[in-house]
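Summary for the steering committee. One of the milestones for this cycle was to obtain a three-dimensional model of the protein with manganese (II) ion bound, which we needed before selecting residues for the alanine scan. The sequence and ligand used are listed below.
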Amino acid sequence: MTLSEAIEQLVLANRIISHEGILDAFGHVSARHPHDPGKFLLSRSLAPSLVRREDILVFDLESRPVEDYDCSLYAERVIHGEIYKARPDVNGVCHHHAPSVLTFAISHRKLEPVSQMGAVIGHHVPLWDSQDEFGDTNLLLVKPEEGRSLAKALDQNWLVLMRRHGATCVGRSIQEMTFRTIYSAANADLLLRAMMVGRVETLTPGEIDRAGEIKPLAVERAWDYWTDRL
Ligand code: MN
């Protein structure tokens, strides 16, 4: 993928995830630099639905801008840098505060896959609590050590809940990250509905393995659908 194509996809991912109701004024989406795994692409500080090509900036894995950009930056960019550092397989990251997912970050109900598409969240969704290592904070992740702690909690999973704050979802490509972000929020919403109705049945470990294998054709089809809806 060329840098221009990566920027194009990242702009679309920002707009798609916003349009699907997961990002609002806050949250952010990034991609690893296609030619330099030691860098990543992220917008200047903006509501993700407003992001255009010219807003995309380049950061190193210490989450420092590679140039002296004359604009404000997202405070929580260490989330992205530290995850790219810890997970060489990850090429896209979305941090959001979607109410459906946040519900499971403020309660003690485990977020588990309950449908075929929901299998994208995998076998385990860890819950990171800033209180454990950092005590009372304003709940924003701004220090590198906070980002490192979150990346450690994410471990080899696809989604990490952040107590009283939000969630961060990752993927092996920008499109896969978008797919996992949207269907993990849909799974959370479905689980909430099922809990209101009765006893909830979750996927078996074998079903999670089989249904969680993401087919490139499915990702492409969903991407085309979401792009058309913009
Ligand atoms: Mn946040």
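Key point for the committee: The chain has one domain: 3-229.
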